[in-house]
Amino acid sequence: MIKKSIHFLLALAVYGLLVFYIAYSYPGKENFNMMRLWPASPEIFQSWLLTLYISLASLFFSMFTGFVLYLASKSTIPFFRYVGRIFDEIVFGSPLIVFIIAMYYFIAIPTGINNRLNVGILAFSIYMAPYMKSVLMGAMESIDAQQYQAIQVLGFSKPQAYRYIIIPQILKVIFPPLIGNLTFIIKGSSLLSVIGVRELYFQIDRIQANLLLYVEGYLLMFITYLLMTIPLVALSKLIEKRVAV
Amino acid sequence: MRIKLDNIQHSYHDKTILQNLSLQLDHAEAIAIIGPSGAGKSTLLRLMSKIETPDRGEIYINDIDVIKSEANEYYKKVGFVFQSHNLFPHLTALQNITLVLEKVHNKTSEEARRLAIDLLTQFELVEHMNKRPSQLSGGQAQRVSIIRSLAISPEVMFLDEPTSALDPILTREVLRTILKLREKNMRFVIVTHELGFAKKAADYILFMEDGKIIEHGPVSILDKPQTESLKKFVEYVME
Question: CB neighbours of A98 closer than 8 A, spacing ≥ 6?
């Protein structure tokens, strides 16, 4: 255990040295001052909250779209399976930024949806559907048919089976990939800046351009995004450890 | 235990597995169903335990009309042990037993725990009670699953080749557990390939082949088979 933590600290030190080297060799280092961004901190914090809101809302709605796609993939009618499969191919084959722009210019504007934030959340909810479908499939398939037979012969009622046997197992396997998807959405939400959503990337980018604080701005972007994603990755690892069966 | 099978017919995807199967037993306590692979042994067991319903015919276990009985009521009276242990992987050995007792058989958590620990102690598994199935050996997991069925005090236990997924050493471990069931006067029907074990544990033998019961009777029929099929089967297995 002690050995592992020493390795971790050494790895951290390597990154620290790298940052120090970059800072030391940076030509304009004498002007570097993170505190000059401080006056803009309320706006930055607000945009940080907005990014979090977009991500959580997108995750929430994508569970529904993912579920619909899951049902389509399990349909006995080939038509629905094909509809789902073609949709998978479109999403897996297109860059997120292209998808967001297409959603905005080809769907939102012609249909009169003016709220860019809602368009952004809608775009993510649709784009993430195939990824959510995979998460659901993994969760459902994690319970093998024999367990259902055991549930049957032991005499559990359906609600009891779901409450005590099926849902606890599904929750355990669903969380790590779900958190993975949330991390993906948080990072990807920066692309909503292309349609003018005032999320974290958009706001810091605007502030750094106004104040001519590019280095400080990009550094702050790193820090603020990592402040969201690192705890999530840690949480996911913790859950994985806890649920190892 | 009383068993009555009346003209049972069952098929999977147009393939007939059991054909016009009839049988009446009034005093068998431990029945071993033997026979070559594909004879329909497991299918018959699954029909008797209501996991499946026959295409035609009637089944009575201890005068209960299996087909017409309400499923959850019937499952409260019988236990079933699968080829693989089928324990719930997110629960410990102890929880696998207490969950059924508490939720299906309405025992208090205290009663359920006491009963489960008592059985785990009797079957020398108490030191593993807090382990999850993945931390148990195949034999231990199968024994826990036998205890899970036994804990509900069923009128009859059905065991479907409970050692088929185990190596010879673990098989012995599980067979010893089943012999212990016999000592406790538990009534059971077991599908098995272990003829030596069937002789020790059962008091009645059903020999099946091609979806039919070819020969049945007390264990002594294994020493003096009346039919050519059983004779060949015994010779083949004993080789």
Answer: none
Task: Set out the domains of chain A in order of their start, with CATH numbers.
Answer: 40-243 (1.10.3720.10)
What pTM was computed for the model?
A: 0.73
How many domains does chain B contain in total? 1
Range picked from A181-185, A210-214, B162-166 for highest mean pLDDT: A181-185
Beta-bridge mates of residue B59? B5
Q: Coil, strand, or helix at residue A196? A: coil
Q: What is the pLDDT of residues B13-27, one digit of tens each?
A: 888 899 889 999 998
Between CA A198 and CA B143 the distance in angstroms is: 61
Q: Write out residues 144-173 of A within 8 Å (CB-CB) of B.
A: 146-147, 149-150, 152-157, 160, 164-165, 168-169, 172
> Are B89 and A245 a contacting pair at CB < 8 A?
yes
Q: Is this complex's ipTM strictly greater than 0.90?
A: no
Interatomic CA distance for residues A166 and A150, integer angstroms = 12
Write out the residue range of the structural domain in which residue B154 sits: 3-238
Give CA separation, B107 vs B97, B101, B157, in Å.
Answer: 12, 6, 20
Q: Are A103 and A119 in contact (CB under 8 A)?
A: yes
